[in-house]
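Observation: inputs received (chain + magnesium ion).
Thought: call the complex predictor directly.
Action: predict_structure
Action Input:
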Amino acid sequence: MQKSVAELLQSDQFLQEVQLKGWVRTFRANRFIALNDGSTIKNIQCVIDFENTDDTLLKRITTSAAISISGTLVESQGKGQRVEINVNRIEILGDSNPEEYPIQPKKHSFEFLRENAHLRVRTNTFSAVMRLRSTLSFAVHKYFTENGFYNFHAPIITGSDAEGAGEMFQVSTLDSNNIPKNEDGKVDYSKDFFAKETNLTVSGQLEAETYAMSLGKVYTFGPTFRAENSNTTRHLAEFWMIEPEVAFMDLDGNMDLAEDFIKYVIKYVLDHCKDDLEFLNERFVKEESTKPQLQRSEMSLLEKLNFVVDNQFKRVSYTEAIDILRNCKPNKKKKFQYIINEWGADLQSEHERFLVEKHFKCPVILFDYPATIKAFYMRLNDDGKTVRAMDVLFPGIGEIVGGAQREERFDVLVEKMKALDIDEKELWWYLDLRKFGTAVHSGFGLGFERLVQFATGMSNIRDVIPFPRTPQNAEF
Ligand code: 4AD
Ligand code: MG
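Observation:
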C-alpha cells in the first residue's frame, strides 16, 4: 500500500512492506537516500543494499530524481531518525542531471531562489512556508465559517476604484496599436469589451458591502491587484486579501473581530504546523543573529507568535499616536525619514514600526484617523475631521490590516464623494445601499501575504507567495 512519508514517520507497524514515491534530497555513501514527498518537511531514510544493487542504477540516484521504492519499515539503527526503510526494490521514475540542477544541497540566497521560483519550493524553507500558507488559508475559512460568515466571491474585473488611489491595472480588449478615439481625442471605451473602462480590483469591499446588507456577515478571500510602483519588502502587485464585512457592527466590534480572527489563525498554525514552524523558527533565529544588535528581534519566531496569541492588542487613537511620535527620540533627532510635525500627517511604515516595536512592544490598533488621509467610504466622526478608520500594526510588518466603519448616511456620503470628485453615477449601486434599509456596518482588509510573512518570519513578501508579481517582474 502506498503511504506518505508523513504517515510512515509516525508509524510503528514495523516489518510492514511499504511502497512510496518521492524525490531524492540527498544520497550518501552509496547507501542512504533521504527521500521527501512533500507531505512533511522531514525526509525518510531509505537504506540500500548497495552490494546487490546495479551500479548504473546507483548512479541514477541523484538529488531531485523522482523514484519509487518498495521495502520494509524498520526501527532505525542510526541516530537522527526513529524509523527507516530497508529497500527491496528501487525504480527511477524521473532522472535528474546533477550538473544542471540549480538547487544544490547548500545554502542559496533568496534572490537566487526567486529567479528559480519554479524549483525553490523543493527547498526546506520554501516547502515549509508554502505548507504553512496552505494551512493558514484553511484556518481563515474555518474561522469565518465557524462564526456564521458566508464566503462571498467578489468580482475581479470591476469598473470602480474602491480605494480611490488610482493604482489600477486596466482590463481591455482594445487593440493597443489602434485605439478608437472620441471626437475630443480621448479613448472611446464604448468600443471596448465591457463598453466602459474596467480594471482589476484593488479591493472587494464595495461589493462585499452589498452582500453584508442582506446576508449579514460575509467575507471575501481573493486576489487583489495594485499597480503601485513600490519596490518594498511588503508590497506585491498581485496579492490575496481577506475582507470581512458585517452589518450592524461598529468600529469597536470591528477591532474585536480583527483581533480575535488574527489570534485564531495564528493559534491554528501553532497547533497544526509544528514541524514546519520549528524549522522556520531555527532559520529565523539564525538569520536574526547575523544582524546588528539593535536591529535584532528580541523574540524568536515561536515566541512572537505565542506573544500575539496571548496578549491584548493595544488600541490607540491617531491623535495619541501623533503625540507620541512628535515627542519621540528618532523624531526629535531627525532619525525618521519623514519627520512628524503636525496632526494630519500620514504615517509611514517607519512610524508604525516605531510604535509597535519600540514604544508599545505589542500589536497596536490605531483608530480615528484624519479624514483627509483615508478613503471616501469611512464614517465621519462628530468632530467633523476624523473618520472611524482602523489599522492593525504588527512588529516587523507594519500595517497588516486596514478597515473602517462605513459611512451609512446617504447625505454625508454624497458630500464626501463630491468633495473628492468621485462620480455619483459610477457608484449609484453603492449609494443605493444608503437609500434602502441603510445600517451601521464595518469591515476590514487583511493582506494575506503580510500575515504569512509574520507567521513564517520571512522578511521579504516575495518569498511567501509562489510566484510574486512586482514591478518589472512577471516571470513564470
Ligand atoms: O489598507 P487597504 O488598502 O484597505 C482596503 O483595501 C480596504 N478596502 C479593506 C477593507 O476595509 N475591506 O488594504 C488592506 C490590507 C493592508 O493592510 C495590507 O495588509 C494589504 O491589504 N495590502 C497589501 N499587501 C501586499 N501588497 C500590497 N501592495 C498591498 N496593499 C495592501
Ligand atoms: Mg491601508
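Thought: report the result.
Final Answer: The chain is about 30% helix and 20% strand. The pocket of 4AD (ligand 1) is lined by residues 162-163, 203, 205, 226, 228, 235-236, 239, 241, 243, 399-404, 443-447, 449-450 (CB under 6 Å).
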